[in-house]
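Example (one chain per record):
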Amino acid sequence: MNQQIRKIMTSNVVTVNDSQTVQEAAALMSQYNVGSLPVVNNNGQMVGMITDRDITLRTTAQGENPEERVADVMTAQQIVQATPDMDAHEAAQLMAQQQIRRLPVVENGQVVGMVALGDLAVDNQLDNEAEQALSSISTPSAPQK
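Predicted structure:
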């Protein structure tokens, strides 16, 4: 049986504006206990994602100023997204292929939800896909030389 993402996604998604500071993004992550935020522009269109890892590696580890803009630290290229009508099995496969744990759900350029690996795991029909996705995501990468 096909199940649309809209039925399992979290729809109250906190976003950050691309002109806000990295410090503000980190504070939002802390406040809402999340590890990533969709980044939107002034028109509400999704333009990227910023993760706690982005902040650590692109700001803190580089000795950069936490007042740097989110736009300078976020991932903006090839943002993997789902649509509300996407099949949940397809979303799980996409997450496994792209090695991501959180998938923004976008409709007409606007963020309408977020699906996490945990959302798939709690659905009995999707627990095998979630397990396979986690296995793919958790495959260790080779250290950089």
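Caption: The longest strand covers residues 110-116.
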